[in-house]
Amino acid sequence: MHPITFTLLFVSFFVLLYFIVMYFYIQLMRRILELAGQMNRTIEPSFIWIEFFPLVGQGWNVLISYQMAISVRNKINTMKDWRSTKLLFIFGISHSFVLASNVIALFFVPVVTKVLFPLAIILIIGWIWQLVSVRKFLESRSEYT
């Protein structure tokens, strides 16, 4: 196989993989905002699709994750459950780490990319794990309310 063809296939694969992963990530965040309820959310779920664009999305992620944390906090505060308070604390901690890694990566990418990349991957996995657990929690609680 010609090296240029291989390179194009390699890049195309990762671009396609990026869009597939982003689609499911955005759907997860939209579902959480829908479960939070219109009175509790601070941003409409339709605004999350801006995150789908490759360069604008990373900056938009900072705003979206902050608005999601506020919306989830508002929803959980209406539940009056000690387990929900613990979940909110863990959600807030993971949200703070993701915001910090976004800001650090935005300003220091050329300098410390080799150190921050593994940390960013770990933080993103933790953030997605928290999003899934919050979605499951809100879905289980929405059946009874």
Biggest sheet overview: none
Instruction: Kindly report how far apart the N and C termini lie.
Output: 59 Å
Low-confidence stretches: none
Summarize the amount of helix as a percent range. Answer: over 70%
Mean pLDDT: 77
Strand content: under 5%
Multimeric status of the protein: single chain
Number of strands: 0
Q: Structural class of the secondary structure composition?
A: mainly alpha
Tell me the count of domains.
1
Count, helices: 3
Using only C-alpha atoms, the radius of gyration works out to 17 Å
Write down the secondary-structure element order: HHH
Shape summary: elongated
Quick recap:
With 145 residues, this protein is mainly alpha-helical. Helices cover 82% and strands 0% of the residues.
Structural descriptors:
single chain, mainly alpha, elongated, 145 residues, 3 helices
Explain what this protein looks like in three dimensions.
This protein has 145 residues and is an all-alpha fold. It has one domain. The protein has helices at 3-36, 54-77, 82-142. It is elongated. It starts with a helix and ends with a helix.
Which helices and strands, and how do they pair?
Elements: H1 3-36, H2 54-77, H3 82-142
